Amino acid sequence: MLLNNDRPKNRLKHRGWLLLVALTGLLSALAMPAVSAQAACSVTGQPCVRDDFDARAYDLNTGTDDWATNWAEIGEGDGPTLGVMLVPVTLGELRFQAVSGTDETNFALSRDVAIPAAASSASLILRIGYSGSSPLARELSVEATGTGLPPLFELISGNASPNPATYAYPLIGSVGGKTINVTLTNLTNLADTPDYWYIDFVEVTYDSPLAVTLADFSAHQQDDHVLVAWETSSELDNQGFNLYRSTSDAAPEIQLNNALIPSQSPGSTSGHFYTWEDRDGLTPDTTYYYWLEDVSLSGATTLHGPVSATYSTPTAVTLAGLQADSRTTPNALPAVTLALVLLLPLLVMRVARRTA
Fold first, then answer.
1. Nearest-5° angle of CA 52, CA 55, CA 60?
2. Using 50, 70 and 90 to split pLDDT, how confident is the model at 337?
């Protein structure tokens, strides 16, 4: 009889621990790691197509898919990891660098940028510097061409001051609906390692009717999280949003959403209301700043904010907000995660009682 009584208890204990393991795995799967934020467009309030060269795979760079799709190499074709033209790991820059035994003259990178038809003006903006010997003898050309547009051709000397510097060149003519080709060319032999040009970013910015008209953007603490809310009055050219956070109002530090928050009113002259519950690594008595970035159908972005909220130690934890709401699509995963966290201790106690 003792053995027979033990069997149900053993089965119950086994099932209880299996359920605990399953819940733990689900919590891990729901975790949303933060990713590095991308820099905003150089001109506040204007959309842009920009390469920050923050990684060799440009999935996070505004307006860029990857090196092979967007940048054409002239002089070599080994991608961003090797050769004269490359993106060093973690440095966040493009380089034209000296390679032993190679004459780097006329090595170039080129890409196309599509300008929306509604745009009436555009500019090419770059940040470029030079490091190495004989800077006076080094030159890099910057070109921008488009059908029916006067060509832009500028020379940058390795001896330029300041070094590095940000260069802004207006594109002349009717740019709306045009495809602009941007080409960077190293014009001289770099000769000695480790001489190199470095480019922090390349950007084409333009004026255009905004993809999104933002009616309101706010943040405030709600129980154990910060509730970020925004409302649009139109989303004519919008595919979605990114949300960024920082402990300083100077610039975004992390991107909160792992995937683009989709537009709920694409192509509409009417707007929508959105919320996001930020629970990720909040520290009590800390002020957090939030930026909202809208992403147009062409990949151009506009950054809004920051708005701020001071997070204090919550006095109670509630399950408010678990009910589905069509206006709060981004909130579902954090709410479910909270519910599972609260249920785990109860489950452990129940299993312990039944197996005692």
1. 65
2. low
Q: What are the CA-CA distances from residue 273 to residues 226, 267, 321, 328 (Å)?
A: 17, 15, 15, 8
Residue 36's closest CA among 21, 55, 23?
55
Distance CA 336, CA 228 (A): 18
Q: Where exactly are the structural domains of the chain?
A: 48-206, 209-318
For domain 209-318, the question of CATH label 1.10.10.10 is answered with: no
Rounded CA-CA distance 3/168 in Å is 83
Reading the block at residue 92, the tokens are 């966040």
Assign domain 48-206 to its CATH architecture.
Answer: Sandwich (2.60)
Only one residue has tokens 């300083």, namely: 248
Average pLDDT over residues 222-237: 91
DSSP characters over 272-300? -EEEEEE-TT--TTEEEEEEEEEEETTS-
